[in-house]
Amino acid sequence: MEESTCAICYESFENNPNGTRKAIMPCCEVDQASTVFCIRCIELICQRYSSQDDNIGKCPKCSQYIQVKDGEVVKSTAPLVECSVCKQKRLPHGGSTTTANTVREKVVCVACYIGIHNRLRYECERCQRIQMIPHPMYRYQEYPTSFSTSTWACHSRCHDYTRWRIIAADVRKVPVDDAPDSWGLQEEEIETIRSIRRAELQGISGGSSGLMYSSRRSENSSSLRSRLHSIVSGWFSTAGSAYDGNGDDDANRR
Fold first, then answer.
1. Tens digit of pLDDT for each residue in 206-219?
2. The pTM is what?
């Protein structure tokens, strides 16, 4: 039997006074699905994932790009373009080649845009030097202590494409909703969406202003950061990393 409540906010779709509607997922919808979502929770996911007005997000079940248009969930139709940074065919930041944000007049993908505006430091597997990389290489790490499955050019000593891992001090800067599934942090993000939705529903029933929504969202973001820092500290303590995790021991490793 198909579920009649949203898997995120737990609101029922049947005779709901708040108008909660089931989202028909265009990417992975099946009859009698045991995991379903409401339109509003999918909207929140898209709004939190996207840094532009296009509100392109990822399906919480299959990770395909989706949008909410005219009250319905649709697959993102944004064309893939070659990113000027990583040279891969990817979804451009901004949703299309005509509206994509540029860095020095160059079109960049969503991933590299994140990397450019949230520059993180990584350790080269081969020479152990640290380098700032304008691309979220953490996406290719099974765990924060693992080296990436994809490569990037090492400009310090190797002068070759090598594997990387984010330094311990910068792991806390990784957006929780962008961390790999294997890091086990996605449920933390879903919990944030759930809390935001509950705050909204409380505001609807109690006639509260949007202040509670903003306050709860800020509190949840802080809580997630603390949780991430706690998890990461345990990982690096167990792994016994060869580097100090601060990236400050060699100022020339950039």
1. 554 444 444 444 44
2. 0.58
